[in-house]
Amino acid sequence: MSIVGKNERKRILLLMSPATYRAGAFLNAARVLHLEVVVGIDLPETLADYWHVPLGLDFTDIQASVQTIVDFAQDHPLDAILSVDDSACELAAHACMALGLSHNSPQAAEAARDKLLMRNLMSAGGASCPIFRNFLLRDDPVWVATQVSYPCVLKPLRLSGSRGVIRADNPIAFVTSFQRLKRLLLNEGYSEEETSFLVEDFIPGFEVALEGLLTHGQLKVLALFDKPDPLDGPFFEETIYVTPSRLPTSVQQEITQCVAVAASSLGLHEGPVHAELRVNERGPWMLEIAGRSIGGLCSTILEFGTGVCLEELILRHAIGEEVASMERGEYVAGVMMLPIPTAGMLKAVSGVEDAKAIPLITGVEITAKLNHQLVPLPEGASYLGFIFARGETIAEVEDAIRHAHKLLRFDIRREIPVLSLRKH
Question: In terms of pTM, does the model score above 0.90?
Fold first, then answer.
């Protein structure tokens, strides 16, 4: 059944990068809601025309892209603009402001993307977060290693998905980590002279993730995920998420309050938020908060009300529908993001059907492509795939996921350079 009248079909612009995992879920949700969708992709105009993309945009050129969106909206009025991943959150905010649509301010969107700005605002706003310092890539790593406390964590300001995040326990490890992060950022096109990075005190404890929705600054918690695997470094690849959380209600309330304070300190007031925290005997500590929903295919384990998916909930909210009454179902859900164990070419995958046959496993999706190079963290930006499970207890859901993971086999081969032989 349509949520709007037959002649009142609402139009929404979805901004996404070409490689996003999130496109299918949002497009399917829009179809269920009978929304007219315009897709804006981070592509040069010539490629957008070739691929029949309605809007080809340069997400790094916000001024030009906003003008393109405004020009488009003159003939095709928009009811909402959403970035489905990190790549266009700032562009979406600027475009919404230009068109008078509800959204976070451009300043808040920038703060949710830039870790230094995020840390400064969180600290000023009263959110518990690690002690941090900012250094330049051009700085002498041996000198920087004498200016920090150990253990510490090096973080790039703009990369997402734990890329470039490295723990160092002593000055020697710090110098190695500094050089590795510097190579990564230079390969990404960042300037050695102008680019900085964070060094934070390592916060012991266990990690959780909160999925929420902001309406006029009020936070509604959609799900709180435990991360049962220890995430102590040296790299911080995500693995298992399970919800609901095992934590006592009082601790969950502290986490919610911490995220609410962090969101407010950044100026985030509307739309989805995904927050990462550490929890120890001193309470919750903010790691990061993003102005978008959970990444990858993880959202597929969440349902609200009578079978409403997360993306449908977000779209309903974006077009002004009331969603406060929608609660998550009473079941335990889990997902595992399959980490890339080593660099190389993916030649074969086996055991998928056996993994799917494990009780409580609801799906196994291998997203890595055969005969493509795999790059693990901290340089890599993707996973091998995802395992999904649902059950009645947290323990049985975790056990099912771990059992299924053990059945999967990935043939990853390192390329051996061929040396030419010359006669002398």
Answer: yes
